[in-house]
Amino acid sequence: MLIGLLHLKLKEASKKANVEKAKKLIKEAKERGAKLVILPSLFPVGNIFEIYENDKKSKSIIRNLSEKIPGTITDTLINLATEGEIHLVAGPILEQAGPKVFLTTLIISPQGEIIGKYRKVIISEKDVRLGISSGKEPVFMSLDKRYGILAEDDIFSPEINRVLALGNASAIIGSIKAYARSPDIVKYVAIARTLENGIPYILVGEVIEDENGEVIGSSPTFVTSTNSLIYKQAEDEDTVLYVETTVLMQESSKERIGKINNIETILQGLCKNIKKMKSMERKKINQEDSHEKEEEEE
């Protein structure tokens, strides 16, 4: 299956222009034979939360963009999927669910049906300050293969990535939010996750420019594999990076350095040791508290 990753330059406060740009590239991807297109984080405006230090401004943006699903942004995404006659992975977007706000990735069919919804599990310190809530469970998407879905900060957590791998994901699909500095660090993290889990990662970044046309943040769009490490990367803005999954899986199936066997058994053993250590720590604390009380009574 051919997948198209949209590496977009998103201009602040220019939703309409950003949507039209995406529509054009989705049409191009469809004509090339793509069956799935992946959009960047917080499309159609882009994720600026790690760019601005002003939490007040970010909170204002969250209030303006948060909406129930379905909503205005969801309708825009559904229209892109149906007009392009293509599966779409979009997000995360800001989902308002009662008093809570989640960063939620949507999986939309060519018929406009929301066939999957993933609330980001791993949230950053900045997300917490801005009032973003954490999701609770992993999500998979089954098309030609079984794909694990992640979003943004999930890439920094070995645990959620391992859960997706143990859930028989053939590859991981996700988004990377924009950063004001050192955006390429995420590539090294993705390479580590690829080698840890033995599966490729298909990740969409973004470029954010302000109203004056100055680039204020970015993240790379790229694909990893267990042998090539960086298998493909978008070089230009407002382009589609294509990856054929059959070829990618063949390349990743080769014997690789650092392959680990019996990982489930190892993890189970580590979890037992962690529980044992926590139990011992609690016992030690209780003993110290008891000893202090005895001294006070004396």
From TrEMBL:
PANTHER family: DEAMINATED GLUTATHIONE AMIDASE, NITRILASE-RELATED. One of its GO terms (molecular function) is hydrolase activity. This is Carbon-nitrogen hydrolase family protein. Pfam families: CN_hydrolase. Keywords: Hydrolase. It comes from the Archaea. Residues 1-247 form the CN hydrolase domain.
